[in-house]
Amino acid sequence: MHKGRRLNITALFLLFAWTISSCEDNNPGDGGNNKTDDSKFELQLSFNGQIDNEPLPPVGQSVFKTKYGDELFMITNWAMIFSDLALVTEDDDTVRLGDGYQWVDLRYNRNKFTYKGIPKQRYKGIQFTMGLDSAVNHGDPSVWAADHPLNPLMNGLHWGWSGGYIFQAMDGRYKVHEDSFAYGFSYHTATMQFVTRYFLPLEEDLSGDKHHIAVNINADRFFGNASLNEGILFADDPVSHSEGDHEEEAMRKFLDHSLYGFRVNLVE
Amino acid sequence: MKRNVGIWLMVVALFSCSKEEQAFDDSRKSYTATPVSTSDIFPMEFGAPNLPKDNPFTEEGIFLGRMLFYDPILSLDSSVSCASCHQQQYAFAEPLDRSFGIFGLRTSRSAMPLFNLAYSQKFFWDARVSSLRQLVFEPIVAHNEMAMSLARLEERLKRNKKYIEYFNKAFNEEPNLYDMSLAMEQFLLSMVSKDSRFNRFFPGDNVQELNASELRGAFIFNGLVNFDANGNTKGADCFHCHGGEMAQQQNPAMGGIANNGLDASTTDLGVGGVTNRDQDMGVFKAPSLLNIALTAPYMHDGRFKTLEEVIDHYSDNVHYENPTIHPQMAAHGGIQLNLSDQQKTDLIAYLRSMTDSTFIQNPKYANPF
């Protein structure tokens, strides 16, 4: 009886040891490389869609917020494509985050990204371009891997007809007053003339093992600044797809205002 | 004595049991499923689909899925198969506004066509399911479709010599529901339609593929709505919801869904019936327009019998007052497009260029029985 139990225990031990060794064989990249590089940190970068410094209302709810010109609006779709996403050092060198491309969807929670192996040092800002360089924008979109941010099947932001990507898409509904009919609005940024670069000041010493940078994106600021008494009225310009004189002018205004829409809110 | 008999019976049972398992193990060893490369299934020009990583394609898996798709054994009275409502000659839709299940029961919506499913992330008119292996169980258990209990189905498959053999070949397992769903997922994913003249024309380089009317239709389809001083528009902005090489809405986060203004107020909740959200009420999946000439009648309830009726709707009869109409449709200021007869004719000609006749004749998708 005792002998049998010993055999069972021995068998269980051998099974356990075999299981462990099998696991190691299956993950050669992880095995034996437990050292961490003390000179690097892990960054979580998040983009948070807002209206008037408050989070976007939950998806699917008809909650209208006020914008320039006392128009009311709600956002049903808001996504953008970035390139050259990087931290900028005090010496104006850049540390690219991943391959520099990212697709952010502010309505469907694709807005948090983790980057490992970032050098610990002081950074003066974060930069990115809304849009792509010409070669990538007009290149073959089918070359991207299934999980790459530029795969059109993933981001749904490729303008198949004329070629090229939609760099930014914001759609929703607006009312000219509380009781009015809710019309639609649609601002789609595309074509090389509307590639826009952004630099957000940071001035932080990122020397810990993990850091989090949160960037707020305020939608209402894309349509104007009430204090400057200028902006975009949906009643005049409900649509811009970046083509045609009038629509190009509206998109230019939209992007000029967008420079005030991004702000680093949190570094920890 | 009784004790001895009991022990003897247990020994016999044990041996017979292990003998049976041994025999099964032996048969499993004799089969190695043949891998199928994804590059042999999916065209480069469509881009890389996001495929399930735990269900590699094999010849045997795809074939088993095809058998199951065409086999009425999946329904309670063995009268209805998936193919009853998803018929190859109609791009795996059927020419009915609502389908017939067992005992002549009707479904509440029309059968959607089945192709290029690898490029979608939400399925059914109300986008309620996000994986094909999950999708296959829905019609099987629906009371007005196959009305089958899953336990009974598994028993049926396990007793069927043909399926014992084919599950073994595909998965080295006896028939079971999980592998059944994987096999059907493989078959459904493998159904690719890519050989229409529209596909050869896309993204607009090979104009020789289309005739003059179809080309004019392409410009209307892909043009933005922009009314001139006379209230005419050159574009109908179809491409926002039916764009790209697969003529479908590509925003996977939104599930490719939209309210296209069929009714003044919501009659069928659509996606809203699943999410219970205000903005989803009366919203439905916007299907691919590939093979659209084969998939009449149109819309979730089959209310339009012809493409002419469909175009008339978008041109003249959109209910802009519907509170959840797609923002880009409502951005026209509630004004009907009022397309001319020539524009409508050209649009329909363009839509007809999207028919892939090789897909509906491809023996890889045909009834294997």
Summarize the structure.
The complex is a heterodimer of chains A (268) and B (369). Chain A has helices spanning 2-26, 134-137, 152-155, 245-258, and strands at residues 40-51, 54-55, 65-66, 72-89, 94-96, 102-105, 112-119, 121-130, 166-175, 183-190, 196-206, 210-218, 224-225, 230-231, 239-240, 262-267. By secondary structure, chain A is α+β, with helices and mostly antiparallel strands.
Could you walk me through the main structural features you see in this protein, from its secondary elements to its overall organization?
The complex is a heterodimer of chains A (268) and B (369). Chain A contains four helices and 16 strands. Chain A starts with a helix and ends with a strand. Chain A folds into two domains: 35 residues; 227 residues. In chain A, the strands form three sheets. In chain A, strands 3, 4, 5, 6, 8, 9, 10, 11 and 15 form a nine-stranded mixed sheet that branches. In chain A, strands 1, 2, 7, 12 and 16 form a five-stranded mixed sheet that branches. A two-stranded antiparallel sheet of chain A has the order 13-14. Chain A has 268 residues and is an alpha+beta fold. The relative contact order of chain A is 0.18. The longest helix of chain A is centred in the first third of the chain and has 25 residues. The longest helix of chain B has 28 residues. Chain B contains 15 helices and two strands. In chain B, helix 2 packs antiparallel against helix 7, helix 2 packs across helix 8 and helix 10 packs across helix 15. About 6% of the residues of chain B have low confidence. Chain B folds into two domains: 168 residues, Cytochrome Bc1 Complex, Chain D, domain 2, CATH 1.10.760; 156 residues, Cytochrome Bc1 Complex, Chain D, domain 2, CATH 1.10.760. In chain B, strands 1-2 form a two-stranded antiparallel sheet. With 369 residues, chain B is an all-alpha fold. Classes of the chains: A alpha+beta (268), B mainly alpha (369). At the A-B interface, strand 4, helix 3, strand 9 and strand 10 of A face helix 14 of B.
